[in-house]
Amino acid sequence: MLKVTDVSIDIAGKRIVDNVSFTARTGTVTGLIGPNGAGKSTLLSALAGDMPLSSGAVQLEDTDPQITPVKDLARIRSVMLQDVSVAFSFLVRDVVEMGRRPWARTEQAALDDEIIDAALEATGTTHLMDRDIMVLSGGERARVAMARVLAQRTPIVFFDEPTAAMDIHYQEKSLGLIRELALHGATVVVVLHDLNAAAAYCDSIVCLDQGTVAAAGDVDSVFTSDILSKVYGWPIEVTKTTAGVHIAPRRAEPGALHHSLITSASWANSEATAQQ
């Protein structure tokens, strides 16, 4: 369903993604992980056809997203961006309805109301449907954005840090929805910083480091202490049991603050005390 071959991306003369290749199979969730600046979001944008490639190729089903008309592409893949802010005032239901626009004037349009209602219910946003999205919290807006993606009903779905703004209840519920999409035949690619979530919900992992693939494969092969510690530049312990994979970074010890910061803070406290 999704094949990535030797993809490189340059932005402003700088190589952000370098010679990345992997395949995401139908009915699976592929996790993109890696430290900040590794190229995950840039790669996801290119896979969706929203950013040009410098070299290489992406194949979505039998389609090249780089040359496919936007409306046709919107019937093949849907995208939930990391930034879920909305620049204009819309009712929540109107935002979710935007996911149905690629299907306007098709036989699928007859299902619009049913699908919109189902997407709202699945994401726990039905009670928000008549509210202005501008007044919602970040987590609520993220759930509305996920509802829009669900309403689009495409065979390939991309998520960029979908649960970053959500509380633990909706993090798990939303990741469960992502998993369910795959179980019903979608090809899903999701960018995640939460390594434990990636281990729990993904079938395969592509780990990026400075724009290149540091490791790729199933969870067990990629999630090792050696690989993760090297990629993230921090000691990480990986424990594998019958219950699953658990990732635990070493806790940082105090001592990273520069002495001038500590001295200034102490001076400010002393002055405040003296004035009292």
Automatic annotation (TrEMBL):
Q: Where is the ABC transporter domain?
A: 2-235
Lineage: superkingdom: Bacteria
Q: Which InterPro entries match?
A: AAA+_ATPase, ABC_transporter-like_ATP-bd, ABC_transporter-like_CS, P-loop_NTPase
**Keywords of this entry:** ATP-binding, Nucleotide-binding, Translocase, Transport
Pfam families reported in the protein's UniProt record: ABC_tran
UniProt keyword ATP-binding, yes or no: yes
Cross-referenced SMART domains, in alphabetical order? AAA
Question: GO MF terms on file?
Answer: ATP binding; ATP hydrolysis activity
Q: In the UniProt record, does the keyword Transport occur?
A: yes
**Protein name (record):** Heme ABC transporter ATP-binding protein
